[in-house]
Amino acid sequence: HVQLVESGGGSVQAGESLRLSCVASRYTLPMNMGWFRRLPGQEREGVASIYTGGGDGYYANSVKGRFTISQDSAKNTLYLQMNALKPEDTAMYYCAAARGLCGGTWNNQRRYDYWGQGTQVTVS
Q1: CA angle 47, 8, 57 (to 5 degrees)
Q2: Cα 23 from Cα 18, distance rounded (Å)
Q3: Fewer beta carbons under 10 A from the terminal one: N or C of the chain?
Q4: How far apart are CA 12 and CA 49, in angstroms?
Q5: Per residue in 78-118, pLDDT tens?
Q6: Distance separating alpha carbons of residues 44 and 88, to the nearest angstrom
Q7: From start to end of the chain, where are the E strands?
């Protein structure tokens, strides 16, 4: 069982930056790691994804050019660098892990097997 713990959320002004972190425990195989978010009153949506076995990240159109997903495999930590934040980025952000490569289905939350508890990001 993989445990995921997010941190780094907070309240910022529009245009500022935040970096979210997700520490994953107890996995050794390559996994597909993703960030999702739930905006108020909406369904959870995919933000970005990366395969720990290598390759480029995937991004939602709404965050391309502003957000960057990365990993530190030595620390089993996933990051989401969020720049130029907008009020519409306000959401609860979740880290997720899927066994195997998701590829084009990276933003399908049903592909993911493990979820963190979420960290709130508020942009005003």
Answers
A1: 30
A2: 16
A3: N
A4: 24
A5: 999 999 999 999 999 999 999 888 888 899 999 999 999 99
A6: 14
A7: 3-7, 10-12, 18-25, 31-38, 44-51, 58-59, 67-72, 77-82, 91-99, 114-115, 119-123
- Residues 55-74: tens digit of each pLDDT: 889 999 999 999 999 999 88
List Cα–Cα distances, 22 to 14, 16, 41, 48, 83, in angstroms.
23, 20, 24, 13, 18
Q: How far apart are CA 1 and CA 70, in angstroms?
A: 22
Distance of CA 56 to the CA centre of its chain: 14
Q: Which of 75, 84, 76 is nearest to 18 (CA)?
A: 84
CA distance 106 to 48: 8
77: CB partners within 8 A, 6+ apart:
21, 22, 23, 24, 71
Looking at the DSSP assignment, which residues form a beta bridge with residue 18? 82
Q: Within a 13 Å sphere around the CA of 30, how many CA atoms are in the beta-carbon half?
A: 9
